[in-house]
């Protein structure tokens, strides 16, 4: 299938140096809020790239659950493939594909496990079904059938029939502490605007990159 005629001209909305906040997390918050206001489906869905011990990269989607000046936090199974990669190499990359806004944000940084207390705070805010689901899935391992998962769910439901569902020791959050963050805004004639923030000696430096 030839897709060479799939071509869109981008608007001249532009991104100007003087409009950027000195702190990329503040800039990210602005863009995130605009994505929410536009009604984007799952604006907090992001691609997470990890690298295994042999240097092979792998991407998957995860949901950003909160962010602040310390970084971006997502939740997962600590025994999953992504968690194994992070244990071998904590350098990761995140990508927010806000294509409908003619935008993308790319983050490079280090992934760090958050504390169990911080994970618990989020875990208790989840619906009970999601809490039980965390117990059921031995994420990224091979399973012979879906039936097995449903059996396990029934067992877990019985086990935790009364009271609160405890936080599994194998489940929690990672914080991606950003080292670089790039904001990309599509422009006419493929002359897009790109601004690259890099953390250097206790401060953020900003450079414009050629599209
Ligand atoms: C929209 C969307 C959101 C997802 N959110 C998460 C998430 O927040 N955490 C998670 O562990 N997996 C999430 N997943 C599933 C992951 O993409 C992936 O299949 C899973 O984490 C296993 O990845 P791994 O085997 O590389 O560790 C999501 C998938 C999609 C499509």
Automatic annotation (TrEMBL):
Domain Pyridoxine 5'-phosphate oxidase dimerisation C-terminal positions: 171-211
TM spans (from-to): none
Record keywords: Flavoprotein, FMN, Oxidoreductase
PROSITE patterns: PYRIDOX_OXIDASE
Domain Pyridoxamine 5'-phosphate oxidase N-terminal residues, every copy: 34-159
Cofactor dependency: FMN
Molecular functions (GO terms): pyridoxamine phosphate oxidase activity
Organism superkingdom: Bacteria
EC id: 1.4.3.5
Pfam families referenced in this protein's UniProt entry, alphabetically: PNP_phzG_C, PNPOx_N
Similarity comment: Belongs to the pyridoxamine 5'-phosphate oxidase family.
The protein's name: Pyridoxamine 5'-phosphate oxidase
Origin organism lineage: Bacteria, Pseudomonadati, Verrucomicrobiota, Verrucomicrobiia, Verrucomicrobiales
Underlying gene: pdxH
